[in-house]
Amino acid sequence: MKTIRFSIALLAASLVSLPTMSAQPPAADNEEMAIRQAVNTYIRPFLAKNQIPGAIVGVSIHGRRYFFHYGRATDNGTPFAADTLVEIGSCTKVFTTTLFALAINRNQIAPNESAQKHMPQGFKLQPLAQQVTPLQLADFTSGMPDDPTNLPPQLEMRSIEHYTVKDFLTWVSKWKPASAPPAPYLYSNSGIGLLSYLVDDATGKPWHEQLNQEILGPLGMSDTELRPSPAQQERMAMGHRPNGTNAPPWPIFAWYAAGGLRSTATDMLRFGEANLGHKQIDGKTVSDELIAAMKLAQKPIYTIPNSTAKQAMAWVNNLGDEQAGNRPEILKNGGTVGFGTVILINPFKDAAIFIAVNKAGSNPAPIGVVIGRHLP
Q1: Which pTM was predicted?
Q2: Which of 144, 201, 305, 352 is the least crowded, having the fewest Cβ atoms under 10 Å away?
Q3: Which residue, 258, 227, 96, 252, is CA-closest to 164?
């Protein structure tokens, strides 16, 4: 089975045609009612049309958080909650590019140097592949395929226990680009996975250690994990395949930095608020260094084909008229064999949105955009 993901290019192309609405700011005591109306108006038809078992929608506006749950998180009827864990899939990528941006700002890695400089010891890229840069891995212009081309056919056999880090890096070392980079846009899980190993080498710290020290710990994201604890597993939602049957847990791949994290709506709003530049989150001070790295990762680099949206470091940045109150919208979506997710920030409205649905193939990103445009 091919790794589940949604086409960023197709998503970006659709953003500009979504509806907008201007509205006067509501009174403070009516804010939740106005947000609930915006969320209900768009999420309910989406869930019904796609026969999705359940969803959680988290909205942060000016640092005030609201959560709206729909349907069921598990087959025994447990409802979604702000602390329900879900597979966030490719939303993981923007954590990795934030770590990359931190390393850039600390002069530990140069965005335009050869990827070979920071290849793990014992692995050497092919001559043409040595022209690939870390930034090209981050913005999907490396030419590297979406997934390794020698994966076992069974999903469970693709986990890191079977298709190991050594297997992945060996495949990378044999990969030959079709032409000299930069290549045309090509979404790539393997490219972000390789980027994480380059950053590991440049910083001298493994990805999970950096993630905890630089992002999760400082932001109080205690429910964001590659491998949730037994107690966290009890709060894990059940994913479903597109045909509605129960989905197996998403494997931890050797390129886990591209799509392995599990998280909650509460934690993802914390991440969204930091990406908005909030200096305080739940009483914790967010460093200027982290905020600067997040802004660098969000910075537009080039226009995505067949779209007016811009590709950043994994983020998609939909630029527009800020005076209209609708853009820029900066987002990343994700999908696994059982879930669809999106994290979206709107700096003009000082708003962050996280949506998770527990059925694969149901992309909530366009709905997140519409909800964001209709927030008070």
Answers
A1: 0.93
A2: 305
A3: 252
